[in-house]
Amino acid sequence: MSHIDYNGMLERGEDIGGGYKKAVIVLGEGDTVDSAVSTKWAFMGPGTVEFLIHGSGIEVCPDGQVMKSYYPQYNR
Questions:
Q1: pLDDT, tens only, 49-71
Q2: Whole-number Cα distances in Å, 60 to 38, 73, 75
Q3: What span, in angstroms and rounded, lies between the C-alpha atoms of 11 and 6?
């Protein structure tokens, strides 16, 4: 299992023009990537999460297989 943090996701972004970058993160079983929409949980694989990155914000598009995984300090 591996984890990709927020900066790791940003580094994977490929320039697609117009000030945008696109990062496509393919997650194996149990792999995680920071959600970019919450500091309390990450996306967990298997599955794919696409991030459309722009200076004005980030659009996040997980596929139907990806699940939320709450960080241990937020599990109750």
A1: 999 999 999 999 999 999 999 98
A2: 11, 24, 23
A3: 9
